[in-house]
Design a protein that fits this description.
TRYPSIN_SER, six-stranded antiparallel barrel, disulfide bond, 36% strand, protease, Peptidase_S1_PA_chymotrypsin, six-stranded antiparallel beta barrel, 256 residues, signal, 7% helix, 3 helices, mainly beta
Length: 256
């Protein structure tokens, strides 16, 4: 398994198959995904980028591998663009002052690849900044979901996309997913696949897999790993299932 063990290093000019990106996606409209969070994590080795999801006025849900090495976190909310602009009144930059890594996160197997960033104070919600719903039941196989992120848009182009992209992918059974990987696909993981050239890859780590029901968006997965055959292959992408951890998340963010 080629996993997203480290998020995309900013200004990185080379291609690394161990990270994630949106392939074959479409640019999101303003406010289409108001929970989308861009996370900049400062480590001793540089600044790294990951995605995440606002789950309360004070908390962002992301992958453990995105934040486990960091000591400073900056989160951008309310804007689909990674390009800073003083003229964008919807853009908010917030410092995360602490983090919660799942206590049983396993770097090698990627089990429990889930973490929470915490702001010092609650943020103000707007039409462009809204928490996503946590799931009330497990996502099933063969349903259409949406993956979002700022990752690379093709194998040949290094770096991040300037705009938030999304792509429709369908969940598949873990048995089917296992055919693409030599390492075990555990029950707390879920895989999803799109058409050829559609899926996640570099820079999309930590971003959500979203299920839309009755015009509501539900967080059902966290972008975690890909196969070692590259992002433009037909192999599925792997996510941490959200539902098994919904109670853990609610306990830490103070939401029933």
């Amino acid at each position: 398994m080629s996993c997203q063990k480290s998020p995309t290093l900013l200004q990185m000019s080379y291609h690394d198959e161990t990270k994630s990106r949106i392939i074959g996606g479409t640019e999101a409209r303003a406010g289409q995904f108001p929970s989308a969070a861009a996370i900049y994590s400062t480590t001793s080795g540089g600044t790294y980028f990951c995605g995440g999801s606002l789950v309360s006025r004070q908390h962002v849900l992301t992958a453990a591998h995105c934040v486990i090495s960091g000591f400073k976190y900056e989160v951008v909310l309310g804007s689909n663009s990674l390009q800073g602009s003083a003229s964008n009144p919807n853009r908010v930059i917030v410092a995360a002052t602490s983090r919660i890594i799942h206590p049983y996160y396993n770097y090698q197997t990627l089990q429990n690849d889930i973490a929470i960033l915490i702001f010092h104070l609650p943020i103000e919600l707007t039409d462009y900044i809204q928490p996503i719903n946590l799931p009330t039941e497990e996502v099933v196989d063969n349903v259409e979901t949406v993956a979002i992120g700022w990752g690379q848009t093709d194998d040949a182009t290094a770096g991040l996309a300037s705009q938030l992209n999304y792509v429709t992918v369908s969940t598949i059974s873990n048995t089917e997913c296992q055919l693409s990987f030599t390492d075990v696909i555990f029950d707390n993981m879920v895989c999803a696949a799109g058409n050829y050239n559609e899926g996640t890859c570099n820079g999309d780590s930590g971003g959500p897999l979203i299920l839309e029901v009755d015009n509501k968006q539900y967080h059902v997965g966290i972008s975690s790993f890909i196969s070692n055959r590259g992002c433009e292959s037909t192999d599925p992408s792997g996510y941490t299932r959200t539902f098994p951890y919904a109670g853990w998340v609610r306990n830490h963010i103070g939401v029933n």
